[in-house]
Design goal:
seven-stranded antiparallel sheet, 3 helices, Jelly Rolls
Length: about 220
């Protein structure tokens, strides 16, 4: 199991969001603002752009994405992280819907969509750990909230061949910007088990952006 990228978003200034794993650093559209636990996004134009990498292309048939988030609004769609790939390729989006519920969507060939929606909504002003996992071809898309499975399993049966141009944290194609803070964004090329996701939550539930922990050295 491989941790492909880790953006802790603990920078206090500048415009660079450092990837602790493979050096796939991101660039913030605006000067970074940090609330002491994560990077603040203003819901207007704040986002982080990360150039495509072969590391990301390895996240194909199976994958997981996790983050700590705090939202200031649950009445509109806001994006945590997504890939961008043009109109004819496959991509994925992790966001909250108009009711504040985490949602993960896979777009196939620019047209078809498969998704899973969490059963619970985020609470305004509270840090929450969210994870999405997917297994292409077997119909498994799952969402975990604070270490607990909170979604009806989504359907994903088509082949997934990513042709990314970049990753973005905090927006979806210059829209649906995140309103609040994001921290500890992790991308894996395998499906994390429920116990591994719970461990990620337990490890950091007492304080976001603690020093690098055993989970990085273990690869999850």
């Amino acid at each position: 199991m491989s941790l492909v990228a880790l953006w802790r978003l603990d920078e206090l200034s500048g415009v660079t969001a450092v990837d602790k794993i493979a050096g796939n650093d991101g660039t913030s559209v605006n000067t970074i603002v940090n609330d002491g636990r994560g990077m603040v996004f203003n819901a207007i134009d704040d986002s982080i752009s990360i150039a495509d990498s072969a590391d990301f292309d390895a996240v194909t048939a199976n994958g997981s994405v996790c983050a700590w988030v705090k939202t200031d609004d649950i009445a509109a769609i806001h994006t945590i992280i997504r890939t961008e790939s043009g109109t004819i390729a496959d991509r994925w989006i992790f966001q909250i819907d108009v009711n504040g519920k985490p949602k993960y969507t896979l777009v196939e060939n620019g047209v078809g969509e498969d998704s899973a929606l969490a059963n619970v909504a985020l609470v305004v002003g509270e840090w929450t750990h969210v994870c999405a996992t997917w297994t292409t071809g077997s119909g498994n898309i799952k969402i975990y909230v604070n270490g607990i499975l909170q979604s009806t399993t989504g359907t994903q049966t088509a082949a997934f061949t990513p042709l990314y141009t970049d990753l973005r944290i905090g927006d979806k194609s210059s829209s649906e910007y995140w309103d609040g803070s994001i921290s500890d964004v992790r991308l894996y090329d395998e499906v994390l088990s429920p116990s591994q996701i719970r461990a990620l939550f337990d490890n950091n539930s007492g304080g976001i952006n603690q020093p690098i922990t055993m989970h990085e050295s273990w690869g999850f």
